[in-house]
């Protein structure tokens, strides 16, 4: 299975509509892939908080239209990163997933919002649903950026059948070491592929880490990008998930339902 991660650069001088069209062209160029992934909030930038309300859109808005057409034209499964979704008077950080016919088959509202009582944490509402996407050869578990720091979310995705974990992000350069470390940790502890796709460029003055990464179920790095705009490609072997879990069956030794301290 061929996967392409599009580490698009967010330039504040590039109009959102122009970046939307450019991202669609980058997806179309990956027609030899089976799965294509874009980063978190690439239309305006994950730290462009002042733009969230103005650039918000419904699920069937302009980003959906562009990404649906791009997935259909390329004939690929597309995780189109995330948008600022406007729904019911609230804003959500919402990921969009399309099948090769361009049909939006899943959405995921980010559960863990970053900001420590400011920024995304106060501007956006939290999602409350774990989301998996069954592809012909393996099942994806979907998470977004700051979610990467919460291992219990990924355990839930594995319990729901996930064999590959797709994590679009707008991760800052100053914490790049955490990005790489956590991506490998989530792969090792869940014995699953991790496809972590970040942005390049600068969002509202926050330099982005780039360094998108693909990790196999044993924790080996299959491919890693640099800091600049790049398309990262990797070959995935869906059978390796089952093989790893059979040869080193650590997931079977999980101890659940332990009593609380002092109980």
Explain the overall architecture.
The protein has 263 residues and is an alpha/beta fold. The protein has a single domain, classed as Nitrilase/N-carbamoyl-D-aminoacid amidohydrolase. The protein has 7 helices and 15 strands. It has helices spanning 16-28, 52-55, 62-74, 120-123, 151-159, 176-190, 239-247; strands at 2-7, 9-10, 35-37, 77-87, 90-98, 104-109, 131-134, 139-142, 164-168, 193-197, 200-203, 206-207, 213-215, 221-224, 230-235. A 6-stranded mixed beta sheet has the order 6-5-4-3-1-15. Strand 8, helix 5 (151-159) and strand 9 form a beta-alpha-beta unit. Helix 1 (16-28) packs parallel to helix 3. The N and C termini lie far apart (48 Å). InterPro entries: C-N_Hydrolase, C-N_Hydrolase_sf, UPF0012_CS. One of its GO terms (molecular function) is hydrolase activity. Residues 1-238 form the CN hydrolase domain. Belongs to the carbon-nitrogen hydrolase superfamily. NIT1/NIT2 family. Pfam families: CN_hydrolase (PF00795).
């Amino acid at each position: 299975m061929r996967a392409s991660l599009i580490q698009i650069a967010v330039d504040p001088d590039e109009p959102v509509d122009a970046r939307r069209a450019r991202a669609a062209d980058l997806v179309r160029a990956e027609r030899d892939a089976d799965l294509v992934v874009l980063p978190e909030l690439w239309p305006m930038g994950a730290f462009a908080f002042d733009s969230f309300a103005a650039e918000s859109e419904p699920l069937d808005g302009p980003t959906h239209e562009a990404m649906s057409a791009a997935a259909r034209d390329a004939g690929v499964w597309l995780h189109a990163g995330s948008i600022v979704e406007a729904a019911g008077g609230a804003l959500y950080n919402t990921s969009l997933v399309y099948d090769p016919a361009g049909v939006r088959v899943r959405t995921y509202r980010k559960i863990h919002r970053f900001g420590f009582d400011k920024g995304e944490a106060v501007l956006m509402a939290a999602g409350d649903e774990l989301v998996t996407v069954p592809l012909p050869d393996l099942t994806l578990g979907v998470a977004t950026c700051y979610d990467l720091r919460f291992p219990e979310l990924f355990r839930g995705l594995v319990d729901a059948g996930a064999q590959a974990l797709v994590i679009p992000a707008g991760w800052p350069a100053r914490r790049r070491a955490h990005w790489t470390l956590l991506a490998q940790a989530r792969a090792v502890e869940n014995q699953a592929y991790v496809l972590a796709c970040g942005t390049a460029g600068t969002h509202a003055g926050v330099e982005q880490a780039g360094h998108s990464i693909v990790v196999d179920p044993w924790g080996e790095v299959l491919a890693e990008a640099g800091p600049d705009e790049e398309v990262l490609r990797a070959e995935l072997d869906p059978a390796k998930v089952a093989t790893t879990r059979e040869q080193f069956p650590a997931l079977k030794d999980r101890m659940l339902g332990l009593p609380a301290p002092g109980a």
